[in-house]
Amino acid sequence: MAELGPVVWPPAPLRTERLVLRESEARDRAAYIDLFASSEVRTYLGGPRPRAELESAVPEVPGRRPGVLVVEHDGAMIGIVTLDRRDAQRPGHVRPDAAGEAELSYMLLPEAWGRGYAHEACAAALGWFADAFPSEPVVLCTQVSNDRSVRVAEKLGFTEMERFEEFGAQQWFGAWSPVPRSG
Predict the structure, then answer these.
(1) Spatial distance between the Cα atoms of 94 and 30, rounded to a whole number of angstroms
(2) In terms of Cα–Cα distance, which of 74, 62, 59, 79 is closest to 24?
(3) Which residue has the higher pLDDT, 3 or 87?
(4) Which of 62, 69, 76 is closest to 29 using CA atoms?
(5) Contact of 148 with 112, CB cutoff 8 Å
(6) What is the pTM of this model?
(7) Position 160 pLDDT exceeds 80
(8) What are the residues whose beta carbons fall under 8 Å from the beta carbon of 132, sequence distance 6 or more?
């Protein structure tokens, strides 16, 4: 992952009405493994990873790197939101001459689905990003067949830019631009 840029990481915990987005802690390890081992969560992400592999590979404090935020609800991890730089070699860019756009992604445990947490968590992450990188666009890519993810992207204000084939599936690629704040 390319670094996000000149920002202090991790940011102070981001708080919403129901959620806290924060840096990973050791207590998140079991939920982190559940997330990556879930066939439901990983349906559109290349499939689940073997639990035994994750148990031996996931560090005591998982996902502790710039760009990864744990999504917490009622004191427990329910997922993650990431902001990474999109690889220049992959299809889908807003500015072909300036590859490496920030890319938003998220995964939530199935028991957290259908409650608006994905939208709430991603909106908080986008708000932080807009403050840290004013006027920089963010991209999001998901399989066209992942209706729920496409709906979340559209509700967040992502605009579909193109569709292309990647990882053996049709991809939906969208962009989001921060709204300038009036002083």
Answers:
(1) 36
(2) 62
(3) 87
(4) 62
(5) no
(6) 0.92
(7) yes
(8) 4, 5, 7, 11
